[in-house]
Design a protein that fits this description.
Elements: H1 4-10, H2 12-25, H3 31-45, E1 49-53, H4 56-65, E2 74-78, H5 84-91, E3 95-99, H6 110-116, E4 121-125, H7 136-146, E5 149-153, E6 161-163, E7 169-171, E8 178-182, E9 196-200, H8 203-212, E10 217-219, E11 222-223, H9 234-244, H10 247-265, E12 271-272, E13 288-292, H11 297-306, H12 336-344, E14 345-348, H13 356-370
Parallel strand pairs: 2-3, 2-4, 4-5, 5-8
Antiparallel strand pairs: 1-9, 6-7, 8-9, 10-11, 12-13, 13-14
Helix pairs in contact: 2-9, 3-9, 4-5, 10-13
The structure holds pyridoxal-5'-phosphate.
């Protein structure tokens, strides 16, 4: 699914030097590699504050901890994503309200968000799923109308942009009140281990978040609130700083490969290819995900694996059906789209080191089986 070794080989010297540098300086915790990476990331995103942390799940948790929520407050999020989002909502004693998704772009359904809002709703967590930006014009108008905070989950969309209806353009992860991201190795900007970060343009929230991620300390050994210990490792920061310079190139490769797949696969009525955005900005193809509509998805997975082609099912089970997150509010009949997607989606290999021959081979095997 990914070729991290091929990618590493092309930047081997720079990466190794950056790691050696941290070791030579023995700045294992924080230090210049972390502060340089934060500065460079701020500039890349065009955001006021970057607070790094240990992983994307911590980033989401710390974002929620900064908003002074009370047990029972409701947080709206999508039914079709990785479990982190709903997991941290529940860990903090908040109530997740899951919402079905749009069948075309797989992102949270704006109309259904409106119907899920109650007096207890405080926050919406949209996920820019598979690298595709959610409709931020509409989401901001909902949040303003109902006075809700937005935490963007940008883990799959590093480097994507959103173009507003008025033509203004911003990077995803810099539009809501706060944003969380992950540097898990297979993400578009991935380290060689765990890592995460939080972005915000709000000075007060940024100060609060820095303290929360550092044991609730705002002054050394003065613990004002209950926080956590969540740091980006200095070696990871050094690696990420090298890779940040390549992020746009990496995302352009992903888009080019996505377009090749789409050109090859879009003429079969049983295969629905992802919509390729006209402006080429709002989708960075963390995943290239097809819908197989003739109930042959599972046998296709087997066929591809027999032919040496890895593929992924993101995600096989809707969050509302997970044992850990079941609740009376999550009536199965409200999740028709997610229920269908879990049976239809298949993600093909998508990474920076693909080539045209591989994409042709993979696409031919898909067509061979589905025809
Ligand atoms: C990867 C991911 C996370 C979690 O990131 P970790 O660094 O593994 O904790 C959260 N949300 C989404 C959408 C993700 O893809």
């Amino acid at each position: 699914m990914v070729d991290l070794k091929g990618q590493y080989k092309k930047i081997e010297k720079e990466i190794n030097d950056s790691i050696s540098n941290v070791i030579e300086n023995t700045t294992f915790i924080n230090g210049p590699s972390v502060s340089n990476f934060k500065e460079n990331l701020k500039e890349y995103l065009g955001v006021k504050h970057v607070i790094t942390c240990a992983n994307g799940t911590d980033a989401l948790q710390i974002c929620l901890m900064s908003l002074d929520l009370k047990p029972g407050d409701e947080v709206i999020t999508t039914d079709f994503t990785f479990a982190s989002t709903v997991e941290v909502i529940m860990l903090l004693g908040l109530t997740p309200v899951l919402v079905d998704v749009d069948p075309v772009n797989f992102n949270i359904d704006m109309q259904k968000i409106r119907k899920s809002i109650t007096k207890k709703t405080k926050v919406i967590i949209p996920v820019h799923l598979f690298g595709q930006s959610v409709d931020m014009d509409e989401l901001l108008s909902i949040s303003q109308e109902f006075g809700l905070k937005i935490i963007e989950d940008n883990a799959q969309a590093m480097g994507a942009s959103y173009i507003f209806k008025n033509g203004e353009q911003k990077k995803t992860g810099t539009i809501g009140d706060i944003s969380a991201t992950s540097f898990f190795p297979s993400k578009n900007l991935g380290g060689y281990g765990d890592g995460g970060a939080i972005f915000t343009n709000d000075d007060e929230l940024a100060a609060k978040i820095s303290g929360i991620s550092n044991h609730g300390m705002y002054k050394r050994y003065h613990h004002d609130i209950v926080g956590v210990n969540s740091r980006l490792d200095s070696i990871q920061a050094a690696i990420l700083d090298v890779k940040l310079k390549l992020l746009d190139d990496y995302n352009n490769s992903r888009k080019k490969f996505a377009k090749m797949y789409t050109d090859l696969l879009s003429n079969n009525s049983k295969i629905i290819v992802p919509k390729f955005p006209e402006n080429h900005l709002s989708h960075v193809f963390h995943q290239y995900t097809l819908k197989i509509t003739n109930k042959k998805r599972d046998p296709l997975v087997n066929y591809l694996s027999e032919n040496g082609i890895p593929c992924g099912i993101y995600y096989p089970i809707p969050l509302h059906s997970q044992k850990a997150y079941s609740s009376t509010r999550n009536n199965d009949k409200n999740f028709k789209v997610t229920n269908d997607l879990c049976k239809e989606v298949i993600s093909l290999p998508m990474h920076t080191e693909l080539d045209e021959d591989q994409i042709k081979y993979i696409s031919n095997k898909v067509l061979e089986f589905i025809n």
